[in-house]
Design a protein that fits this description.
heterodimer; A: 77 residues; mainly alpha; 3 helices; 81% helix; B: 330 residues; two-stranded antiparallel ribbon; 13 helices
Chain lengths: 77, 330
């Protein structure tokens, strides 16, 4: 039984969540757009949202690669 | 302290015993109306009453309304409204199988009361690194959160007892994490979810006497999502749900579109002569968590359930570690 692979995949996902959260904070917290009046907070939030979405896409891509690597034999079964 | 112990005991008792007592009556009522479905994994294919959602929602509503009498907070109102809307979505889907997109869209609409009531904080907290304020993106997260948690729980409701047993583990994990983070009011508000799941598990475990159906699974999943939002434990909730997230991730990455389980042409599992479950060799069949577990060889339905519970307990441990890590900043 290859359940150990699933445990390791869960552990990798957990690490990726923590690292991804750290990167999100690292990249987005310093962002503050000024000079556009009432649009400042909207633009700041929008840029943060775009960065977060890019990070999520990268996260899913990495996860997909790791999934194929960990479950190589099971997936092809 | 006493002012919190009384509601905890009362709400816990109402949540557990209402489902424990009502479900047998619901089973008989469903059997009488011939609202039964075939259990394909049972020898002979027994007919099992479905849905169990009504007893689950009664337990949740009774306990949360009682809690509201003690702590009249907007967060409890958000839990009540969104969970009830998710139940309605589920019961519609139980009665009439709708398209693959119906549930995600309808559940997204169910999340709107959380925004309208303002029962959220747009700071998204991560362990070790602190929080980030994302006002616009957080609204999107709310809208996506309820369909994701609802459908994630619904997608693991494939074997006897798995959805309710898994929810018991995940929701108690959330409660413990909320206590660790000293968010006591939401911790108490999350207790009914675990106790309702536990009481329903008594009838849902192998061999099932009732299935939760979409109304049961979506109700549990949506309530889990609301608690994650109003309790500001989104990341912890995601960690506790990881085995179910893996199931959805594997399914979607193999099928590559949002569809109903009933629309799948090739079954990911098949039966051996002695009625154990085994992974199919059909290349068109979707990859699921159960199929992955069975890659090591055939197992009984009960054995697979316990493997999933072991995975859930592992994720629960990681989630509680994450809760402790929330208090540490590097």
């Amino acid at each position: 039984m290859k359940v150990a692979h699933i445990f390791s995949f869960i552990f990798v996902m957990w690490i990726l969540i923590i690292v991804g959260g750290g990167l999100l904070i690292l990249f987005t917290v310093p962002i503050s757009i000024t000079g556009y009046g009432i649009l400042d907070s909207f633009l700041t939030s929008g840029v943060k949202a775009v960065i977060a979405i890019i990070l999520v896409i990268i996260w899913i891509y990495i996860l997909s690669k790791i999934k194929n690597w960990i479950f190589h034999k099971q997936i092809k079964h | 302290m006493l002012d919190q112990i009384i509601p905890v005991v009362l709400v816990s008792a109402i949540a557990f015993f209402s489902v424990y007592i009502i479900t047998p009556f619901l089973i008989r009522a469903l059997e009488k109306r011939n609202l039964v479905v075939k259990d394909y994994n049972r020898v002979g294919g027994a007919m099992i009453p479905r849905p169990g959602g009504p007893s689950i929602i009664i337990g949740i509503l009774a306990s949360e309304i009682t809690l509201y009498a003690f702590f009249p907070t907007i967060e409890i109102v958000a839990i009540l409204v969104t969970t009830s809307l998710a139940f309605i979505v589920g019961i519609i889907d139980d009665r009439k199988t709708l398209g693959g997109w119906f549930k995600p869209v309808a559940l997204a609409v169910s999340a709107i009361p959380i925004i309208l009531l303002g029962a959220y904080d747009s700071n998204l907290a991560f362990p070790l690194f602190g929080a980030v304020k994302i006002p616009v993106l957080y609204l999107v997260i709310i809208i996506f959160m309820i369909p994701i948690t609802g459908n994630t729980i619904n997608s693991i409701d494939v074997l006897n007892g798995v959805a309710s047993g898994f929810m018991t583990i995940a929701s108690f994990t959330l409660t413990v994490s909320l206590f660790v983070m000293q968010n006591y009011e939401i911790a108490i508000a999350s207790l009914p979810l675990g106790l309702v799941s536990l009481a329903f598990y008594k009838y849902h475990k192998f061999p099932s006497r009732i299935f939760p159906g979409d109304s049961g699974a979506l109700t549990l999943g949506a309530m889990y999502g609301v608690i994650a939002i109003v309790g500001q434990v989104e990341v912890i909730a995601a960690v506790a749900l990881l085995p179910a997230v893996i199931n959805s991730f594997l399914f979607l990455s193999s099928v590559k579109r949002v569809i109903e389980h009933g629309q799948i042409k090739s079954n990911p599992v098949t039966h051996t002569d002695d009625f154990k479950l085994m992974a199919t060799t059909d290349r068109d069949a979707p990859v699921t968590l159960v199929r992955l577990i069975l890659a090591g060889g055939p197992m009984t339905e009960k054995q697979i359930g316990f493997v999933i519970f072991r995975l859930a307990l592992f994720s629960a441990a990681l989630a509680i570690i994450t809760a402790f890590m929330m208090g540490i900043k590097i």
